[in-house]
Specification:
Shape: globular
Largest sheet: 7 strands, mixed
Distance between the termini: 62 Å
Strand content: 15-25%
Number of helices: 17
Strand order of the largest sheet: 3-5-1-13-10-11-12
Radius of gyration: 26 Å
């Protein structure tokens, strides 16, 4: 009888190692004769380095070298200009690395770094995002996975003739990742080959980039990431500390380690760009959409082409015959933004779902009913049918479970007192991707199996999920399957990002297991060679076939809030998320991802805000004393449910990705609940006490 491990609520395989401290992260790696690197950040936001004075640092005992643009190894160019460390005297933003000290101890390195003198020719800088400023340009013609802009029908005419119209602007500030584990690298060279331990979400891709930078073959580079303490997108692409460590190891001829300080993360590790989003909706009196326009303005750096694409989810979310989405960027003298959990969907759905709530109010419709009326079986953008789309099921189950019918009675019960209560809802969506990956599976002939794939576990429980997937594909007990990941020496894997890890790696593992079963079948169970038998798989060809369906995960977020109209304090005593994410591989790890995303969305709604200093050009909120995040006291009663569905168009396991959808829609649900409680609409995040007090002050309208 076939065993079924998929769907079992198994604890994470590495849980004991992590809670007892036996799990070794990059910063824990200790090698013989290890040296340490500290960087010298630029003290101007725009200009050129005219001279570096290392003499004071070199005079300190224990200093091995000072690297800068005048003496460092030369690198090959890549598509990421932020990796061209010390290759140009130009300064694109404050905090950019302009020199680095290598020393015998981290203390000596950091002290010596402060003694390196740097002369600058400073130039005027601009760091504030304002749609009134000059310099906005449209994003590249094509994004990473889709066209950047689109237009269907006649939006302007449809809006002009729509019985009900909504036009509003929504803003989100910069958001920083602040993973528990700061970015760090340990690097050493041996016989012309480079080995690095790195905080990376993609060992295979990092290996290839390092090989190109230093002009050596990929087979001479090894990237190891056994455990990664969170990433949220900031560790998806290599960062400057990786290049500095590899250069320093080459210069001093011994292993070196560098780990970012918490303050350095805001300048080098990336962040989510702030956005200004203009949404216009036109609808009939029955609430059915006739026209949707979503235009986003955001910033990038002088060295990056990154775009957040907040309007992209609007293309597929609701049916409307007339639609347009556009993205505009401006280059500023700021650090480069990057991917952050649910890039595009997270800020974009805050704006869209807030606007949908405003439309429901204008149409005198229940917000859940409005969304149900605009549901669609086919993707409005591509015209293709959805592989599965259970948004309606999520909305209905969530409304029933949350007690949605009681929302107005509950609000009325608090009358016009100081404490107001409200409920809000918002929809969620995430596109589904599978990227080419390879996997190898070996049997020892005695009923034990080993899976190897260069995947990275950033806290998602990848080892456990892949073991469950392999066990079912092999018709074996999950305890007989070992999973080895986090090493570029294993078969190449895609990165951990865009909610694609389990579907991409799981597909490769399934295909490798199928190949192994076929090989055993040809030989016979009792004729496996003494040295074992191995099979491999590569999904590149399989994934080259054009899709026949539009593949997305969907969900519905519900929030209850209390608002103190005197202090402006918002509390969120209860949240519920209902999600349609295909077949659930492991309820334990899936719940962890969904609830974790919802907590991040709560933090985004109430607390988080990157603030940049217009005079000096750096983030003022560059550590956890200034950059506020939700704490245990802020976390409400959170429930995450999954509706039953399987999507074999998305993966052979029937599963979809769950890493990102939990954060999508959360902030909108909370903001909508605040409007329900107070009758005042706040369109700018975060919902801080000052903003709330100003909104609920007497005389302010909706």
């Amino acid at each position: 009888m076939r065993r079924t491990s998929v769907g079992a609520a198994l604890p994470r395989r590495e849980a004991r190692e992590k809670v007892t401290g036996r799990a070794r992260y990059t910063g824990d790696v200790a090698l013989p004769h290890l040296a340490y690197v500290a960087v010298v950040p630029a003290q101007v936001a725009h200009g050129r380095v005219t001279a570096v004075h290392p003499e004071g640092a070199l005079a300190r005992s224990g200093v091995l070298a000072v690297m800068h643009g005048g003496n460092c190894p030369r690198l090959n160019r890549t598509g990421n200009a932020d990796l061209a460390v010390f290759q140009s005297p130009c300064v694109a933003h404050r905090g950019q690395f302009v020199a680095a000290v290598v020393a015998e101890s981290p203390q000596t390195a950091h002290e010596a770094a402060r003694m390196v003198g740097v002369d600058y020719a400073a130039q005027p800088h601009r760091v504030g995002l304002d749609i009134a400023c000059e310099g906005f340009r449209q994003a590249p013609d094509h994004g990473p996975f889709f066209p950047t802009d689109c237009s269907h029908g006649d939006v302007e005419s449809a809006l002009a003739h729509a019985p009900v119209r909504i036009e509003a602007t929504y803003t989100t500030p910069p958001y920083h990742h602040h993973a528990l584990e700061p970015h760090g690298t340990v690097a050493y060279w041996h016989g012309g080959a480079l080995t690095v331990y790195d905080t990376t979400q993609g060992p295979s891709g990092t290996r290839d980039i390092l090989a190109h930078l230093f002009g050596i073959g990929p087979e001479r580079v090894r990237v190891i990431a056994r455990h990664v303490g969170g990433g949220f997108g900031s560790k998806a692409a290599p960062r400057a500390q990786l290049v500095v460590a590899a250069m320093a190891a080459l210069v001093v001829g011994r292993p070196v380690k560098t780990v970012f300080t918490r303050e350095q993360l805001s300048a080098i590790a990336g962040y989510r760009t702030p956005t200004i989003q203009r949404i216009r909706l036109g609808a009939g009196d029955d609430g059915r959409l006739l026209a949707v326009s979503h235009v986003s303005f955001e910033q990038t750096s002088l060295t990056s082409d990154h775009c957040e694409y907040p309007a992209a989810p609007t293309r597929t979310m609701y049916a409307a015959p007339n639609r347009e989405t556009r993205h505009w960027r401006v280059r500023l003298h700021v650090p480069s933004p990057t991917w952050m959990r649910a890039p595009g969907e997270c800020p974009g759905m805050f704006a869209l779902e807030s606007a949908m709530d405003e439309l429901a109010f204008a149409c005198s419709l229940d917000p859940v009913e409005l969304r149900l009326r605009n549901d669609t079986a086919n993707d409005p953008h591509s015209g293709r049918p959805f592989s599965t789309r259970n948004l309606a099921a999520c909305l209905r189950l969530g409304a029933e479970r949350f007690g949605w019918d009681e929302r107005d009675r509950l609000r009325a019960a608090y009358g016009e007192g100081r404490l107001r209560v409200g409920m809000g809802v918002a929809a969620s969506t995430i596109p589904q991707y599978r990227f080419p990956s390879r996997a190898a599976v070996r049997t020892d002939g005695l009923g034990h199996y080993t899976v190897r794939i260069a995947a990275a576990d950033i806290g998602t429980g990848a080892r456990t999920a892949l073991a469950q997937i392999a066990a079912d594909a092999l018709y074996a007990d999950v305890d007989r399957v070992t999973v080895e990941i986090g090493d570029s020496a294993y078969p190449a894997a895609s990165w951990a990002g865009r909610s694609s890890g389990t579907t991409s790696w799981g597909t490769a593992v399934v295909r490798a297991c199928e190949a192994l079963r076929a090989a055993i079948g040809r030989l016979g169970e009792d004729r496996v060679p003494d040295g074992g038998l191995e099979a491999t798989a590569d999904t590149l060809e399989e994934l080259s076939v054009p899709r026949a369906h539009s593949q997305h995960a969907f969900g519905a977020q519900f929030a209850r809030v209390t608002v103190d109209t005197s202090t402006g304090e918002i509390r969120v005593p209860r949240m519920l998320g209902v999600f349609a994410v295909g077949r659930v591989i492991n309820p334990v790890t899936v719940r962890s991802q969904l609830v974790g995303g919802m907590v991040m969305g709560l933090s985004m709604a109430l607390c988080e805000e990157g603030v940049i200093d217009p005079v000096y050009g750096h983030f003022q909120s560059r550590d956890l004393s200034a950059y506020h995040i939700a704490t245990f006291a802020d976390a409400p009663e959170i429930e995450a449910l999954c509706v039953e569905e399987e999507d074999f168009h998305t993966s052979p396991m029937g599963a979809k990705g769950v890493g990102e959808i939990g954060i999508v829609g959360t902030a909108a649900a909370i903001a909508n609940a605040v409007h329900h409680a107070t009758g005042r609409r706040i369109r700018d995040l975060p919902l801080g006490v000052r903003r709330v007090r100003d909104a609920v002050a007497p005389g302010n309208g909706t």
